[in-house]
Amino acid sequence: MRFARISLLSTLCLLSMATAAESIRLLVQSSPLAGFQYYAGTAHWEEMRPGDRLDLIREPDNPHDPRAVRVEWRGDKLGYLPRKENQAVAAEMDRGGQVEARIARLRQHRNPWQRVLIEVYVTL
């Protein structure tokens, strides 16, 4: 509870310092990419770089998860935000909030959950 208050106070201080012309980008999620091994990620592995922009697309009609957020790189589906971690991002997207994502880390690993780390930001 104390951490939440400190975090909220820090955020409010940052917001009060921003002018109307500036925006603040907050990191709201850092997570692995779910389903990487099933989509276009392996085909584009050599081309992708940390820092590359990712597109997030809501899939409210997804039969497996009504909060599904698809992750694309240059128009190709790479996977999804993990189901256990997509609620806040899906809700923000549904509200029309400005959400963006980037590749944070790429690494060769036997476990596909360890290959791509993505970061999701909300712009205030």
UniProtKB/TrEMBL annotation:
<dbReference type="Pfam" id="PF08797">
    <property type="entry name" value="HIRAN"/>
</dbReference>
<keyword id="KW-0378">Hydrolase</keyword>
<dbReference type="InterPro" id="IPR014905">
    <property type="entry name" value="HIRAN"/>
</dbReference>
<dbReference type="GO" id="GO:0003676">
    <property type="term" value="F:nucleic acid binding"/>
</dbReference>
<keyword id="KW-0479">Metal-binding</keyword>
<protein>
    <submittedName>
        <fullName>HIRAN protein</fullName>
    </submittedName>
</protein>
<dbReference type="GO" id="GO:0008270">
    <property type="term" value="F:zinc ion binding"/>
</dbReference>
<dbReference type="GO" id="GO:0016818">
    <property type="term" value="F:hydrolase activity, acting on acid anhydrides, in phosphorus-containing anhydrides"/>
</dbReference>
